[in-house]
Amino acid sequence: MIVYGIPNCNTVKKAMTWLTENGFKPEFHDFKKKGISAEKLNAWCDTFGWETVLNKKGTTWKKLSTEEQQEVNSKESAIKVLMTYTSAIKRPIIEVDGKPVLISFSEESYQSILK
């Protein structure tokens, strides 16, 4: 299991705490430091939809110019922005056996999918 995110994100902290308390030993991938590949983003967008992977509620998205925001209208344009602004990726994203299974944090979702 790999948890993708950034360490100072409260949602990532909640997810890591829940996983640890429920007996999981997740590996953590800090995509601010380690980056993220276009292939990985493509897989996440295929699984969750690019509109979900792109966090439009976060400060990174809100700091983009109106023109930059309006140019994001497809999976390809979203991936381009997410490669440049990794903080705009909704987090955490959890992969099990190399497959994306969860995005963000909801105790109910984690229990139903991981238990």
What's the quick description here?
This protein has 115 residues and is of the alpha+beta class.
3D architecture notes:
By secondary structure, this protein is of the alpha+beta class. It has one domain: Glutaredoxin (3-Layer(aba) Sandwich). It is built from seven helices and four strands; from the N terminus they run E-H-E-H-H-H-H-H-E-E-H. It has helices at residues 10-21, 38-48, 50-53, 59-63, 66-70, 75-84, 107-114, and strands at 2-5, 27-30, 93-96, 99-103. The protein has a four-stranded mixed sheet. Helix 2 (38-48) packs across helix 6. The longest helix is centred in the N-terminal third of the chain and has 12 residues, at 10-21. The model has no long low-confidence stretch (mean pLDDT 96).
Terminal CA distance: 13 Å
Q: What is the share of helical residues?
A: 40-55%
CATH topology: Glutaredoxin
CATH evolutionary superfamily: Glutaredoxin
Protein name: Arsenate reductase
Family: Belongs to the ArsC family.
InterPro entries: Arsenate_reductase-like, Thioredoxin-like_sf, Tscrpt_reg_Spx/MgsR
Pfam families: ArsC
Which key terms come to mind for this protein?
115 residues; alpha+beta; Glutaredoxin; 4-stranded mixed β-sheet; 7 helices; 4 strands; 48% helix; 15% strand
Indicate the topology.
Blueprint: E1 2-5, H1 10-21, E2 27-30, H2 38-48, H3 50-53, H4 59-63, H5 66-70, H6 75-84, E3 93-96, E4 99-103, H7 107-114
Parallel strand pairs: 1-2
Antiparallel strand pairs: 1-3, 3-4
